[in-house]
Amino acid sequence: MSDDSYTTLVYECPALTNERLSDALTKWFGENVTFTHWENIGGLGKGNFYISELMQIIVYGKNQNGESKSVDVMVRNIPKSIASRLTFRSNEFFRNEINFYEIVLPALLKFQASKNVTEPFTNYVKLFFSYSDGTNDVLCLEDAGMLGFVNPTRDEPIDIEHCRLTFKTLAQFHAISIAMKEQKPQEFDALRNAIFETYFDDRLWDWYERFWEMIFAVAIDAVEKEYPNTHYVEVIRELSDKKHYKDMVKATKTYKTGVISQGDRWTSNFLYDYENCELVDSKLLDFQASRCASPVLDISCVIYSYMTQEFRLKHYDDLLKYYYEVLARQVKEMGTDPEKVYSLETFMDEVKKFSYFGLIYSFEGMPAILLECTDDAFEMDVEGDQKMNIADVWKVKPFTTKEDRLRVANNLVFGVDRGYVPISN
What we know:
Blueprint lengths: L17 H12 L3 E15 L4 E12 L4 E10 L4 H6 L2 H24 L13 E5 L6 E5 L17 H24 L1 H10 L10 H22 L4 H9 L5 H8 L6 E3 L8 E6 L2 E7 L6 E3 L2 H11 L2 H25 L4 H4 L2 H11 L1 H16 L30 H16 L8
Antiparallel strand pairs: 1-2, 2-3, 3-5, 4-5, 6-9, 7-8
Helix pairs in contact: 4-5, 4-9, 4-10, 6-7, 6-14, 9-13, 13-14
């Protein structure tokens, strides 16, 4: 790339014109700033299971006094490959996340700001620029990595300190929805309708069916090898029945107790900050699967993607209690009685009714978490301009180590032993 190329970003993304970048810089700094050039820090490859392409850049500009201004930005660009866009339905995920950042999050934060909250939810990455037309979609967020935030190690479960902070962050986020829904129901309904289900919906079954078969084949393999000749084998086989996709759809439609949720709660979507090796802060990432549903959906994904069996048996009940304590305190500080709108009894009832969501979702997530860190990683490059079935591209293979198989099999064991699995007795 020539030096002149760094005076425009349209070659990387047509939506990132110089004029739009100047407008974004002006809004960011609160003064008139004109875009001058950009610097490529690094191309980070594919993101969100190949839904997007990632770039880490610095955007430069000058204000009216000629002073230099800059912003560190993570660019998530819709894939240039037409086949990738169609196969992974990239435009839907981009549209949903952009709606979250442009419409939903500002309204939630505005509502929270009108209240006297001791510890307000601030654990999000700021939006720099977004654009969506289905072809040139792009989402530019402040690069939190330059602020010291990092991902946890992807294939290792987190410890109790990280997990408590994760639950606290989710509780603070969910609490805004609970209070706003009770105090401003029409405004909240508008937010709920601004986002849409991108993963578990009847309209998506043809897209997901063969992939469902594949991920359950891997889960069945893990359970059969680690718990042979047990009732757990019978349960995982029955749970693989395609009728249970309907259970996942049902869980996403729990509007009555629903909150605006992150929707894709696994390790890569949390960032953590440290001071003197001590954990001090966190940020939520990736709202492409954002939905309005029971908060248990987010919680259950943490439980089955983050935690080992040993960790769950030791800390699970205390973490649920801690989550609700934070949630109730936040809701009360915003002027709503938590016992009236979302009591502890209701929360625990939903834990029992909807924890299967995180369990089943883990059968998809665990291969992504574990296999990408080994030589068994799957390749998902899609060439051409034709839509493919995701099962022909996202080829998940059985685990080759006992440790990895146990991570998956023990998820089922925990869910079954707790009475969370929606199968006939």
